[in-house]
Each structure stands twice: as structure tokens, then as C-alpha cells.
Amino acid sequence: MRAKFYPGLSKDFSQLLEDADDYNVTIKVGENQNTQEFHAHSIILRARSPYFKSALSNQWANNKKDGMILFTKPNVSPPVFTLIIKYIYTGILDLTNVSGFDILELLVASDELILEKLFEYVQNYLIEEETAWLNQNLVKVLLIVSKLASCQQLQDYCFKSICADPDPFFTSEEFLILDKEIFLELIKRDDLGIEEIDLWDHLIKWGISQTLSILQKDVNKFTDANFGNLKKTINPFISHIRFHEISSRDFFYKVRPYRKIFPLALFEDLMSFLMAEAEPQHKRLPARFSPYLYINLPESKIIRRKHAAILSDRIHYKNASSKTSKGYKYKFRLLYRGSRDGYDINTFYSKVNGKGQAIAVIKIQNSEKIIGGFNASGWNYSYDDDYDDDVCYNDRNKKHFIFSFGENYEIKIGKFVSGTGLLYGQNCMLAFGDGDLTFNGRKGSCNQRSYDQPILDVNRFVAEEMEIFSIRKL
């Protein structure tokens, strides 16, 4: 029988790191005023890291002072190296309360130091546990990880996230400084979920920002030199734009003004196709396909197109995991927003009443959680004398459902089973079920009774924002 005593071994090595007086390596990390020295043992560094094994060879380790081996790592910050040296000695890594930027730096440093197990763990951790941070910093992350050949998994995650929900990426301030190779890789993708004319607009804005000789944005004021320089910047991208998917009107007003940056034969070919429906002579790329292209969602403070696509699937296919059909397009129209319209119940009904099927979405305060419900009948509250102001009326449409979104668009659906489906009336603002999802202003509750499962793990919540959208299939 074999016994293992790893916890004790880890503890002893931790003590060796903290209290050793026989170290023979000093490692200085950081730069400027943010530096720190760490003491270590060459035999442990060599055993744990191929990088240090090479660095501590006779050829590398000749920078000594009084028999002490000296290292400098200015590209690694003290907080990050603290995590690394503890991992090397103890095999322990605690990322609790570590910022996303420090975790990303840890990923880069573990790659450089050839700490393969650490690198693999940190890459998976970023994807699985730091989703929200990644989605907020996609440009910065891509600028770094695109230089790491071993970081393909995180690169793929970033590209897929952009393709699924490109609007925040293309409208971010960092987009204009995006590396050319990264943008080119993105623009080649067939699953990029953006209208082609919008992609062209973003390409032009990026190209102008990258062409330092262009000092004005008005294309009508461009000189021949401006067009020539812009052509050099944009040329690698031209062959990857699906111009045949752009309407003739958009082409005339948005593409044609930049005709001087096109190869003449290609521009004439596109004009013949769009204006005379002539058969293209140049290679015609297939239309991009992403389910999110077929969702028309106005500006929302709560949901993105991917949320809207998932909800559309649930409404029309009764299966949240199914794919949105390319043959359909869905239009979401903003009817009501709490921060804009207030939470007065009369104002609420004046905005949503009689507008058909609708989706309510609520952003929970101090949380990434989004909850809401689908009103399959629409609000149809009548103000005539037949309605009692003190009574809420019960709509039992079996297609009602409530939902919650967690991180990474994970959805939980509560299906209406029996009893109270949806209440409406002078005293009922948002009321799904017999308390399954109620909201009358800033506060609400979720107590599962009429729907088949709860959508929150807590009974009460405070809302940051609420929006109501009508939804219809075009």
C-alpha cells in the first residue's frame, strides 16, 4: 500500500520559500518604482521550470555577486511573480481577488517560463471564470494572446465571442488601435455576425485611423495622396468583404465614394452586378452566416443580440438550445425603459398596452444576472368600466415563460404549468405567475409556484434597470 503526503510536502516547501537562509538566487522583478526582490533555490527552480533549467546552466548563470545568482525580470510585476514563485514551490495557486489584468499577465509569464500546467490552468480559468472581464477587454486580450502560439484556445474564444456579438467590440474605443493581422483574421470569418455594410463602415473608420497622413474624415475632401495611402492600408481586406451582400443603395452612398482605393476591374465588376445584375467575373464569397445576424435589436442597456437570439429560439421553437433559422428575422422594438420612462404604473401601461407579444428584461443590481419573462399574449389591459381597478386579471396562455441569464449566456427557463400565468391590471406592473416573477418598481421577488422551476436562487432582488420589447417575426 502506498501513502501520499502531498499537503505536508507543500507546506514544508512553503516554509522553505518564506524562511530559507540558504538561497542562492535573487530574482528582481518589475520596473521603475514597482520592483521587488525574491530569494529562491536554484535546484528547485531548475526542477520546476525548463526556462530556469536553461537559464541556470553554466552559460547563462554567470551574472553572480558574492556567489549569488542574479536575475532580472522587468516584464513581470511583483504581484504576478508572487503567484508564480508560490506555485513553483508549493503547487498552490489562489486567484481569489486577483484582477483580470493580473491573471492575463500570469498567463503570459507562465508561457515564457514554460510552466505548462500553470499555463493550461490559467487559460481555462480565464475562459470559464472571467467571462465578463474577457468580453469587456477583447481588444486588449487579443493584442496580447495573438503573440502566443500556445494560446490558441483563448484566441478562439475571443474570436467566437466577437462573432456572436460584434457591436460592443466594433464600437469600443480600443477597436481603432486593433492590430492589422487580428482584424484581418476576424474579417475572413464566415460566422461574423454583422451586416456587411456595417463591417465596411468599421473597416473604413479603422483604416483612416491607421493612416496617419489622413487628417480629416470627410471623404469628399480626400486628396489623391489620401486615397493612395488609405488603399495601402485597406488593400489586404478588400478581397474578404462580401460586397455582393450590400444593397445597391448602400453601395452607392457608402462604398462608391471610396472607389479610388479599389482595383479598377473589381469596382467595375461590382457596379455591373449591383446596377445591371450582370454575372460577377471576380470570385464571389458566400454570405456570412451567424444566427445573430437575423436579430434586429435596438440599443438596449441590458441585453445583447445573442440574448435576443436565444430568446427568439425559445419563443418560436420551444427549445432554448436550437439554432435560429436563417430564413427568419426577428425585430425587437423598445417599448419601455424604467430609467427613461419612470416606474409609474399608468405610464407603464401607456407604453406596453396593446403592442402584442413582448419580452420583459431586468438587470439585477450589482450582478451580471439578467431575468425576465415572455408575455405570449401581450398586455391588453382595458381602462373601461368593466375592469375593477383593484383586481389583477389572469392570462393563462401556456406559451408564457420566465427566464434568467447567467455568465456566458447560460439560460434557465421556467415554463408556465398551471394556476396564474400572467397578471395585469391597475395594481399589477410585472407579475408572472403567483409570485414567480413580480416587479413593481425597483424591488421584486421570485417565489416559484405557477412555473415549473425558479429562475433565481434568492427570493428577492433589487433591479438596476428594466426594459420591455415587443417582438415579431419579419
TrEMBL record:
Any matching Pfam family: BTB
CDD domains given in the database record: BTB_POZ_ZBTB_KLHL-like
InterPro entries assigned to the protein according to its UniProt record, in alphabetical order: BACK, BTB-POZ/Galectin-3-binding, BTB/POZ_dom, SKP1/BTB/POZ_sf, TLDc_dom
Coiled coil regions in record: none
Domain TLDc: 301-472
Domain BTB positions: 23-97
Record's signal peptide: none
PANTHER family assigned to the protein according to its UniProt record, in alphabetical order: BTB DOMAIN-CONTAINING PROTEIN-RELATED, HL07962P-RELATED
Protein name: BTB domain-containing protein
Organism of derivation: Diversispora epigaea
